[in-house]
Amino acid sequence: MSLANKLAEERRARLGAERMLELKQAELSAANRKLGRHAKQLTEEIVETRAQVETFRNENQRVKSDLSIANEKVQVAERRLWHSIETIQDGFAFFDLDNIMIAANHAYLAVFDRLEEVAPGISYPRILQLTTEEGIVNIGDTRPSDWRAEMLHRWESPDPQPVTLRLWNDQYIRLIDQRGHGGDVVTLALNITETVRYEKELQQARKVAEAAARAKSAFLANMSHEIRTPLNGVVGMAELLTDTSMSEEQRLYVNTIKNSAEALLVIINDVLDYSKIEAEKLVLHPEPFDLERCIHEVIMLLQPTTREKGIDLLVDYDLFLPTLFLGDPGRIRQVLTNLLGNAVKFTLKGHVLVRVTGMHPEHSILTNIHITVEDTGIGIPAAKVDYIFGEFNQVEDDRNRQFEGTGLGLAISQRLISMMDGKIWVESEEGAGSAFGFQIALPMADLDEAAAPELPRGLTRGLVIDPVAVNRQIQAKQLELMGIEATCLDSGRAVLDLLNAGEGGFDVILTDHNMPEMDGLELAETLRSRGVEAPILLFSTNSSYAAQDPARQFVQGVLQKPTPRRELFARLRELAPGFVEPPPGSQPAKARAMRVLAAEDNKTNRLVFGKMIKSLDIDLRFATNGEEAVEAYADFRPDLIFMDISMPRMDGKQATIAIRAAETAQEPDAQRTPIIAMTAHAMDGDREGIMSAGLDDYLTKPLRKQAIIDHVIANCPEGARPPLPDEKGQQVG
Ligand code: ADP
Q: Which of 35, 59, 86 is where one domain is finished?
């Protein structure tokens, strides 16, 4: 090879090597650049990480310092809490799940004075053990092991009930234990010594106060008895005087004496009752009673006043409501007397209507009874409607001032009704009238008593004549419920017009007695003269007076108004076609007179009693004390005894006990003689004493003629002739 070739080759080789070198250098510098970038990135990351580490370090530092501050705070709080717990007077401790004491304050530990063992770490059962061993708690007669078992049982219950312990030094501790979620128990031992002492003092003070209240009511009862006895004489004698012939002026004086004495009695009774309720001495005495009769009894007492005032007194007793209930008839009568008495008092014209309705909810033994007393009187201003139920509260205006009263009646009624779990209310419109109502729930006394009495059959058309619209409505409703179609007219004249128009064909005629122009008896006479033969029933507010009228012969019956349902049914049944009269001779004409014994030590009262029933055909004998009464029982064999309770030598209760003993001694099934107590407005204790001595009923003094007569009639035995010959034992108005 030529040199030139060699040189050229070398140069090519060198050129190639140089290119290669350039290539490698370029690669190297690219790698270097990459490396540089990477190194830069790493450096940046390192810086960043360092910064983060620094931040974390700072954070950590702060957390550490916060933690130590918090720790300090916790310690301070704990110290303060314990400090507070230590300073409270009551014991405080807590126990863990295994009943081991974790901590307790000084007050808790102090109870176990100087017992070093009682400290955190001790178990609850051991504390109980030490408590009985050292006599720390006064456990009375309980055996220590029993007491501990009881306390442990309580402790272990999920919700231990508080318990009061009496310590050896007469301090009282109330233990309140609370079980937490984890099973820990916190115990609070409250020192209630002061409270217990205070309670004892209160009890003592209460006993003293109760004794004083008892003394007060006993004093009131005695006083009322003392005042009532002479007042009884005043009322009774005045009533008898009114039956004698007197000049108008004398009659006015006597009536004033009687009315004043009666008003005084009402006040005495109200005050006495109210003080009894206040002293919580008034208890209810439920017994079977006839509600309808109870209402009619109240009405009978008010009738003289309504007759005098010329207002009508009406009763609308739901035809399908039973009448026999279990309740306190005395107190229900008292409420009725008050509401009806007020209605009559505050009504100058129009009527007073008692409505009785009832509902017997299914599956209940109680019947809801609603009684409303509606009047057409002066009414009550709307603003005073609630006020009048307060004690001694009366509406003070010119119209009211003319009426007497204590303002206690409604307060007493409200209390009595609330004692019976009932409600009392009033709706009133000034100038138009008032409606007082009450609702009580009473059990029926006789579950067999048919809701509606047996209805008369065979009477289809009835004629009702009464000038008062409400009365016509009530009677028409009653007749219609009995299946008798009723035509109502307001006067005798209207009846005659009807007859003149050719109408008639009534099966029964019900007429009011006291009607303007033509009264009921005159109407009856006219009807008979015109050939009307339908039976006529006369309704009179003074039935005994009506019964004596010669025109009585034109009517088939005289009924006292308002008439109890039973009475009306009975009369209508008798009039119905097909009714058979009881065989004559069932009451022999020549029967003996009924024997009545009255034991009464007070001469005036004996006189009043005798005069009050002088119209009765009976054989009356008096005894002047209990001993005489027992003797008279043996030789007189009375059919009925009226027994005064407070009498010298032997009182009425003792005499009754002796008579009851004599009865059982004779023959075990001998007839029990009814004995009716005559007493002053009795205290409740007395009433129980009276009834438990074997008396059957009682009358409160001053005695009412009608009440005595009712008792005599009700107790007339079969073999004796009726005490009131006419009217089948009708009540006398
Ligand atoms: P008293 O009748 O003895 O005054 P009450 O407590 O029975 O006491 O009645 C309180 C008052 O309520 C009465 O004084 C009277 O103002 C008013 N009042 C009660 N009943 C009626 C009524 N039927 N009509 C009008 N006002 C009445």
A: 86
395 Cα nearest atom in ligand 1: 16
User: Using CA atoms, how far apart are residues 172 and 688, in angstroms rounded to an integer?
Assistant: 42
Distance in Å, CA 386 to ligand 1 centroid: 11
Calculate how far, in angstroms, residue 123's C-alpha sits from the geometric centre of ligand 1: 72
Same domain, 303 and 424: yes
What pLDDT does 305 receive? 87
Is residue 469 a contact partner of residue 353, using CB atoms and an 8 Å limit?
Answer: no
| CA separation for the pair 521, 3 (Å, rounded) | 186
Q: Which domain holds residue 675?
A: 594-714
Band of pLDDT at residue 703, cut at 50, 70 and 90: confident
- Specify the residue with its C-alpha closest to ligand 1, atom 8: 407
**Cα(637)–Cα(670) distance, rounded to whole angstroms?**
12
Residue-wise pLDDT tens digits, 579-635: 555 554 444 456 788 999 999 988 888 888 888 888 888 999 999 999 999 999 988
Residues 443 and 325 in one domain: yes
Q: In this structure, are 127 and 67 located in the same domain?
A: no
The whole model's pTM is what?
0.54
What are residue 256's phi and psi, to 5 degrees? -65, -45
Mutate to test the pocket of ligand 1, among 336, 348, 388, 396 (most ligand atoms within 8 A of CB): 388
How far apart CA 555 and CA 194 sit, in angstroms, is 82
Residue 660 lies in a domain: yes
Pocket of ligand 1 (CB under 6 A): 338, 342-343, 346, 375, 377-380, 388, 394-395, 400, 405-411, 434
What separation in Å is there between the alpha carbon of 406 and the centre of ligand 1?
A: 9
